Each structure stands twice: as C-alpha cells, then as structure tokens.
Amino acid sequence: MSINTYNCGSVKRLSELFKLLSEPNRLKILCSLGLECRPVSDIIEDTGLSQTNVSFHLRALRESELVHPERKGAFIYYCLPDPELLRLLKDFSDWMENHGSSNETITGKKKAAQ
Amino acid sequence: MSINTYNCGSVKRLSELFKLLSEPNRLKILCSLGLECRPVSDIIEDTGLSQTNVSFHLRALRESELVHPERKGAFIYYCLPDPELLRLLKDFSDWMENHGSSNETITGKKKAAQ
DNA sequence: TACTCATATGTGTTATCGCTCATATGTGGT
DNA sequence: ACCACATATGAGCGATAACACATATGAGTA
C-alpha cells in the first residue's frame, strides 16, 4: 500500500482541480495573471479571447477559488490568492519536458529535448 | 515577466496532461497502480470499474505514455514509467488541503473520504 | 437622471467525453 | 484445433463542456 494507495480518498476533488486546469484558455488566464492582480480587460487583451469567454472561465476559476476578484472602481481585478499554484504548474510543466517520453502531444508537436 | 509569463508556450500540452488527470476514474487507476506494475484484472477489482471502462481509460493513459503495458503471458501488466508523477499528484493534493479555501468542491458535495 | 464603460449572466448550439454493449484479438492449456 | 480467460476495440448514446450572442448589472461621470 503505502504510496501505492496514495491519497485516493480525495480523488474526486483532485480531479475537479485538474479539470479546471485542463482547459487551455483557463490555463492561459492563470498564466496571464501570474503574480499580479489584473483587470479583466488586461486578461482579454493578453489572451486574445472574447470578453464573454474570459468572463465565463473566470467564473469557473472564481467559484473554485483559484482566482479571486477585487473591485477597483469600474474595474475588477483578479488575483491568484495562492501563487504557489504557479509553482505547481511549473513542476508539472517541467516534469512533462523531462518525462522525455516526449510527445505527450496529441497535437503532433515534437520537441527536441530539455 | 519571470514567473508571470510562465511557461505559457506549452499551455496546450500542459492542459492535455491535466485533462488526462481530470477524470476521477483515470486518477483512481493511476493511484491503484502506484509504484507496482499490475495486471488489468487487478485494476478492475481495485477500482470497481467495468473491464471495458478500465480498458478505455488505460488506452488514453497509454497513448500519452502515462502508463506503459507489459505482457506477461495472458496478462498485461501496466506500470507508471515515471513514478515521479505520483509525487506531483501528491503535491497537488497537499496544496488543495492547505489551500484551505477548502471547498474546491464545485459540486457542493462535501466528502470525508472513502 | 442619463450615458458610457467594465464585467457578468442566461440561453442555445455544437463538440467532446465517459460509458456500455457487442465483438474482436491474443494467450495458454487440453 | 478448440476452449477459456485476459484485454482491446468500434459504434452509439447520454451527459457535459465551451463558446457566442444578446442582454443585464454595476461603477463612474456629467
């Protein structure tokens, strides 16, 4: 057992978290946010997504508290309440690179190495 | 920039990885695998999923090289080629706990464990 | 008050996903 | 060769997700 059984109790919640991160545009939004709080308009410009779409994804992120809104006048600034999340994303990203097996890529994009 | 811009180049691939992990049953399968190589029959018993369903998910995991099959007689053993993945999962799981915000739980369903 | 800008929300459409059923493939034993 | 068992695969169905459109809310300003 030990690490084998792993934390399978929280699989449900864990999968919900991953589901949130499994949407490229939502990831983009999180990345665009980075460590700063930014108004939606910035995110829109940054990601190139439609206003509706950004708002749509922000809702999902907000409801699971991955981001958190702050009014400032007419603008609403979104922040990552826990920037540690970025580190986790980076860990995964790095792992993917080294995983070497390489082409995760369903998209057919192949990369040289690390 | 720095961590802000993050690795937004590989957002696509990262999201694909997360999509794989966003399915509770796929997560269960990975957990059930743990560090050992195990035949499909074990996974089926362990997870309580149907044979077809397990096979279905194994295909997805296999095709992205998150697991890797090894024939042994009539049986096919599946392994995690890179157990580091389990650590990443654990990191996320831990983060979720501490994230405190608590109820990720979009479904509103609160669960102790099982 | 009315008008503008920033953002959110409800509805409907389309695509994708997870699952199951039935069946196929592959392996070992007789 | 046949049979039993382990696993994989393809087709089809129902649920859900992402998106756009139109519209609503809410803040600021005049």
How would you describe this structure to a colleague?
The structure is a homodimer of 114-residue chains. Chain A has 114 residues and is mainly α. The first copy, chain A, folds into 2 domains: 8-82, Orthogonal Bundle (Arc Repressor Mutant, subunit A), CATH 1.10.10; 83-114, no CATH class. In chain A, 50% of the residues lie in helices and 11% in strands. Chain A is built from 5 helices and 3 strands. The first copy, chain A, has helices at 11-21, 24-33, 40-47, 51-63, 84-98; strands at 38-39, 68-72, 75-79. Chain A has a 3-stranded antiparallel sheet with strand order 1-3-2. The longest helix of chain A is centred in the last third of the chain and has 15 residues, at 84-98. Chain A is globular and about 45 Å long. The interface between A and B is large, with 53 and 56 residues. Chain A binds a DNA duplex (30 and 30 nucleotides) through residues 19, 23, 25, 39-41, 50-59, 71, 73-76.
Structure in a nutshell:
2 copies of one chain form a homodimer. With 114 residues, the first copy, chain A, is mainly alpha-helical. The first copy, chain A, has 5 helices and 3 strands; from the N terminus they run ααβααββα.
